[in-house]
C-alpha cells in the first residue's frame, strides 16, 4: 500500500543546489539513526482519523528503519501533552513527532526539546512559534475554501452551520477564517452560524441540537473534523427527521474534513456531499521521513518536493511541507488511491 521513501539525494533533492534542500550536518548511517528512539505524541484517539494515523506510524517507522517508543496519547489535553513530551525527553529520545493540540501551548514542549537538542517534527498542526525541523501538514485554509465552494454553490442563500475546531489550534483558525471569508465574499445570501466545538463530539452535538431547534431551515453544514463530528451531526439530523439523501429537496448539504472510511460511506449513501481527504497515511510517512533526517543533522528549505507538495515558510519562519488533500465527492469516492479506501482493505 505504501511506497518506500526515496533515498537521500534522489527526487526530494537533499543537496544545497536544489529548491528543497537538506543543508548542514552530514548524513549518519541507518544504523546510527536507528540507535536513537523516536517518541510520537498523538493529540487524541477519539477520532477514526487519529486511530488511522496511529496505525500507519509503526508501519512507516519499520519501512524507514526508525525505532519508536510506544505512541503516547495526550487525550485532548494541552497540559498533558507538555507532560508527555517531558516524559519522553526523560527517556532520552533522540527525536519527537508531535501533533500539537494548542498552537501556542505547545511552545513550552518545543523549548524543552530544544534545550536537550532533540529535533521535533510537528504533524497536522503548526505551532505559533518555536523550533521544529518541519511541519507536515496540508493547507488548512484550502479546506475552508473548498468547503465554502461546495456548500455555497449548492445552497446559494439561507443559513449554514460551521462546526468549528479548536480555535486555539491554527487548524481551527485557518479553516474557520477561510470558510467565513469565502462565504462573505462570494455568497452574500448565506448566513453562517458558528458552533465552536473544539474538536469535541459532545460540543458539536449540543451546539447543533440548539441551532437546529431554533433554525429548522438550516440548509448546509460544514464539519471541520468528520472523524469527531460526523456521528453526532447525522444523529442530530436524524432525530429531527432531516437526514435525507442528496436529490431530495429537504437534503441538508454537508461538507466535511478528514477522509475517514465512514465519511466515504456517507458520501456513497448521499448523506453528506463531500469531504477533504486529510492524508493520514502521508502524515505518518513524512513525519517519520523528516524526523529521521533531522536526527541525522539535516535541515531543509522551501521549494517543491518529489511527492506533489511544496515546502513553504510560514510567517513564523517555520517550514511546512503542505501535502495534497483532495476533495472527495460522489464522483471520485471510490478512487483506490484515497487512504480511506485503502485502510479499509488492511484493517
UniProtKB/TrEMBL annotation:
Q: Give the signal sequence positions.
A: 1-21
Tell me the protein's name: ABC transporter substrate-binding protein
**Record-annotated Periplasmic binding protein domain positions:** 38-298
Family in the record:
Belongs to the bacterial solute-binding protein 2 family.
InterPro entries named among the record's database cross-references: Peripla_BP_I (IPR028082), SBP_2_dom (IPR025997)
**Matching CDD domains, A to Z?**
PBP1_ABC_sugar_binding-like (cd01536)
Keyword annotations for this protein? Signal
Q: Which Pfam families match?
A: Peripla_BP_4
Which Gene3D superfamilies does the UniProt entry name for this protein?
Answer: 3.40.50.2300
One GO cellular component this record assigns the protein to is:
cell envelope
- Lineage, top-rank taxon, reads Bacteria
Cell compartments where the protein resides: Cell envelope
Give this protein's Gene Ontology molecular function annotations: carbohydrate binding
Q: Which SUPFAM superfamilies match?
A: Periplasmic binding protein-like I
Task: Note the PANTHER family from the entry.
Answer: D-ALLOSE-BINDING PERIPLASMIC PROTEIN-RELATED
By its UniProt entry, which PROSITE patterns does this protein fall under? PROKAR_LIPOPROTEIN (PS51257)
